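Late entry, evening session. Most of the bench is empty. Finally got around to the prediction I had been postponing all week. Sequence below, unchanged from the version circulated by S.P.
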Amino acid sequence: MDFIDGLGLVAGIFTSAAVAPQLITTIKKKKASEVSTAMFVVMLTGNALWVYYGVDKKDIPIIATNIFTICLNVAMLFLKYKYKDND
């Protein structure tokens, strides 16, 4: 892995990790009323397209970080559904 690939991987990790504080807050409060379902659906769509693009370009940092972000977004949507009665 060269420097640029490493940089891309680090950038992707930071971008993906941006969802983590919302996940943690939602888990602690067991409430998700302030979470926008539409935003996470749009993000999922964008991340899925990035994975497709990364596969086409054979770009591991793009593929890996966007798959990670998809997992976080799916987890957030699951929590939104799980805690819907707590709001």
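Two things to note before I forget:
Residues 11 and 65 are 9 Å apart (CA to CA).
The two ends are 46 Å apart (CA to CA).
Will write this up properly tomorrow.
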